[in-house]
Structure formats: C-alpha cells, structure tokens
Amino acid sequence: MTNKYIVAASILSADFLRLKESIAECEAAGADWIHVDVMDGNFVPNITMGPFLVATFKRATQLPLDVHLMIEKPERYLEAFAKAGASHLTVHVETCPQLPETLKQIRSLGCLAGVTLNPATPVSTIEPVLHLADLVLVLSVNPGFSGQTFMPETVSKVAQIRKKLDEIHSSAYLEVDGGISTETLPKMKDAGANAFVSATAIFKYPKGIEAGINALRMSLRGTQ
Ligand code: ZN
Between β-strands 112-117 and 33-39, what pairing exists: parallel, antiparallel or unpaired? Predict the structure, then answer.
C-alpha cells in the first residue's frame, strides 16, 4: 500500500558508517522512499555519490530509490543509475538542453521521470514538459549541501506548479526538497506538495530516525 503523502529520507545526512542500520530504521519507521542526492562538483559545488553507492543502497532496502541528479550532462549517466537500481531519476532543467528527450529516455529505462529546478529558475522553464514528468521536484534551498535554511518564497512556486499539474490532469508527484521539517512541511502540503524530502529532520533528529519520521508524519496530519 502506498501512502497518500510520501516521506523520502535523504541519505546524504545519514551516518555512512552505519548506513545499513540507518536505512533499516527508515524502513521500519515507515519512510516511503530513500532520496539520493547526487552532486558532481560542477553543477553544484559539492561532490557526493554515484551509481556505485546507489547499487549499494539497493542491496540494503526494498524502498524505491529516488535519485536526484545535480550533475552536468545527466544523460550520460542515466543508464548507469538505472542499472544500479534507481527507481526515479530526476534531472535539472538547467542542465538539460534536450529536456523532453531526456525525460523520455528516463522512462524508456523503466524509471519514473523527474524534473526539477533551482529556486531562482522560473516555473515557465518546466511548463512545456510537465506532461512528460512522473515527478516534479521543487528545491526549497539552493542545491549543494544539506542542513540549509528553507526559502519561504518557494511555497508559492509549489502552488503554481500544483495548479499547472491539475490543469493537465497530471498525477505526477509534486515533491519538495530542502529544509523540510515539521514547521515547513505543512506549508508545502497546503500549497499542494505530496512528497517530502527530509534529511536533517530525520537523520539528525535528536531522538533518532524513527522519532524524526514519526514527527514528520504527525505534522502531515496537522496534529502537531
Ligand atoms: Zn535532493
């Protein structure tokens, strides 16, 4: 059974020395997806992980691997990530001159096709490809590092995209990523998001991973 609202645990904030246990804790606590932030030191200043680690995560979990590619020329690596076990591949509009073809390529690899945009990039840039997307990701921080402060102006961007997805009767996930906590999550939910990536609020939650995921679920119900 799939939850109506998706909680995606961003592995970037996990303790990599106890990765297997952390992933198992996420799974047991009811996380829906494992979100993987791939950075190339080019499109964003940081360097994180590649297909090899995605394949390693795949061995540790049954959960879908939601792979967010913050890399230049992502089309070169789509097949490698799909083979490694990615379930979703999300590319940045800023890095894809042939965005419709790239999204079609992702679908042809058997993955859900995701598109995303930086906080400074207008919604109009992705509008022409919304019908080709299974997932639209809105970044609520500038990409590059976890633990950044949420940008409140991105809430209206989510509402704008929700409206456009509804207009074309799209059932694509509308996912948000960056600074998502029990305070910011309800605002994004009210604006129309239905998938929530959280890193710090899960892996650095003072009472542990399970309590962090429970707190996010509680904030979804509006009981907190
Ligand atoms: Zn991400």
Answer: unpaired
